[in-house]
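Appendix B, example 12.
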Amino acid sequence: MWLVILVVMVVILRNVMGTVLVKGASMEPNFNHGDFVFINKLSTSIGAPDYGDVVICKLDEGSGYENIIKRVIGLPGDEIDIVENEDVYDLYVNGEYIEEDFLGEPMMTDGNIEYPFEVPENSYFVMGDNRNESLDSRRESVGAIHKDDLMGKVVLRLYPFSDFGLID
């Protein structure tokens, strides 16, 4: 009987939660290469992400899929605008300037999409926190991420142990 309960619990947890190893520098200074995070799969499959949520996305690179970690900037129907302002770029969502005090440095590139950009239905505009080293929705090769390609919301950092804790 206990074995059946254990198997059921493992199956449920595997379909509800998951772990991901962060690769690359696109989310520095908030997430680093080698961080190990816990994701809630239900938050994106049944629910919907919100502004500022950190999510894991499936990116089709043509030769296969890669998991990337990004922050949700725009929701379906939002208008995203990135405007040059004295050698740096400012972010606007629906005409409102977005203050992002969690970034390590100013954004120096706007990508290669046309602005203003309207986020398509069932899609999300995502960007890395390290805007100058991130392949994200500002690039035509990535674009807005469809809801079906969101694997889950990052809810807990497991490693490094010095940074262990819940993710807001």
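The first strand starts at residue 17 and ends at 21. Helices lie at 2-16, 42-45.
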